[in-house]
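Render Flagellar motor protein MotB in 3D.
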Amino acid sequence: MAILTACNSTQSIFKQGVRKFDNGEYSLAIKDLQTAVTAGYELGRANYLIAESFRMSNRFELAVPYYQKALENGITNPEAPFNYAFALKAAGKYAEAAAQLEKYIASNPTNKVATEKANRELYTLKAIEIIQQKKTFYLVKNLDKLNTSGAEFSPFVKDEDLIFAATRKATLYKNNGMPMTGIYKVKLAENYDETGGEPEVFSPALFLEGVNEANVTFTKDGKTVVFARGNTGKKKGAADVDLYLSRFASNKWTEPRLIPVSDSAAWDGSPAFSRDGRTLYFCSNRPGGVGGIDIYRANMDASGRFSKPVNMGKDINTPGDEMFPYVGPDAKLYFASDGHPGLGKLDLFVATRSQGVITIENLGAPINSRFDDFGLVYADEEMKYGFFSSNREGGKGDDDIYTFEDESVGLDSNQIAELEKLPLDDPRRRTVGKPEPPKIVNYYLAGTVASNETPAALLDSVIVKIFEISADSLVGQGVSTGGGVFGTFPLEEGKDYSLLVEKRGYITKREPFTMAGKAIPQIFRKKLTMDTTFYVALKLDRLSLNKTFVLENIYYDLNKFNIRPDAAVELDKLVQILNDNPTVNIELSSHTDARDTDAYNKKLSQNRAQSAVDYIASKGIARERMVAKGYGETQLVIKDAKTEEEHQKNRRTEFTILSY
């Protein structure tokens, strides 16, 4: 009696698992069917339904051992070898997959459809090696600051946001036992692969508990969104998966409405607008298609009405599944497919039309893998950066979002050839085709201060300030040490500076310093960053009564005493000295040579001295601080001068310190 009761109980659990399988509640079905397998009940069929549950919930690798056990236990379903082969292919076991396909063909010798299907898969397996050898230049990185142990997929870039689908709702989806999907958003990081953080719901209008929502697409103006909603667990009507439209009005998204391209009896999803927003691409498993899930298109007019959907045809669609269409910045159609030759399950492809002929190209590794790779979008018009979804090994959870960078964008053929020679992990790949980063030189100024006498003495406690002339701003200041050393002051390429040097008992002076022409050319910069210091030797004159200084290069026209422009430049230097030494009073004297009469030279020199004082006074120096004195030829430096050079030394302008 106990044995009979146990058998009845196992049979009941098995039937319960079958019902859940038929209802699409695959995760729940697996638990009941595994109980039946453990009890040894209906091993062929129970193992097969477990394998099919894993396949239907997109867990192919988990299905492999159950297909094997089902076949070992005599499952008679004619599709079992084919489905087993597909799971083996998804698991990367290509030789074993080919063997199962050969068995499938042998067991269906008169079934043309089955034979064609199996031969297509055999062709795909043979193409894998070619796809693996394809040269690509993609750098792929998991968006680990966003992805979780759940599923994040179907990214879309809108303005400064990354919009995506994620399994974060409170309601569990019976198909796979995971939370239902909703539509979320996060801010894009400046470096796309740093995007992450806690997402927020994209819009309350597009967030409904108890259903799955995913796959947004927007018109060009960003004010119309179409997305997929459904998967409640029911099988008929709008409660399955259909396409909905919402518009942005009055600063919010309107209540979504079902759009007529949807077929209430079919699965419709993965919408994608064309670049101009006039064509909507989407996927559907409606009757009359080429394969399982096909890509369709429908036109949308200015009023938002859609035309009748049209299948994209056999150039795009295959007897397998084509999903997740996307129109790139290059106006080409990108999509995922398990029907075109690929590395595993869903691979990413691009369709190119040229002279009426459509060519399908597999994007290759590392964007594609033996797992599901889908939902590609570009983040920039140059098509250098983008995002896609994958459930590949090494991720954080179920489906994850990945970033990619196409290193070949912007490179010429020679640079691409250089890139091909470098391993994927070689840091030099990042510099190919890019201008060499500028090598930075940090410039500094330092120096010494000494007395302007013989022998010279190095001076301590000298205050040194440095000003940037164009901005009239203080760059730095310091005090000389016991060795007369000062510094260090930062300098910038091409700028002009003035050093203000002060010490009690000495004449405060300014010393120019320019960086013009002093920058080290890039070719001679051996490091990314280097330091270079310029040194100056400054001298200060003691404040001494009756000490006389010659003003160089003060010239006058013959027999004239007006201030020439070139003389004004030199007198401006004296103006600066008097401004920097406000307690100093001077005599400004003018001297002539001996080539005219004493009286004439005396008068001429006095006029020249007075003209100089008048000029300096016009610059704001008080007249009472200056005395004009013309000495004529009474204080010749060279008596009996004969050459022009000797006469020139006698013609001079000087100033003498009268008080301080």
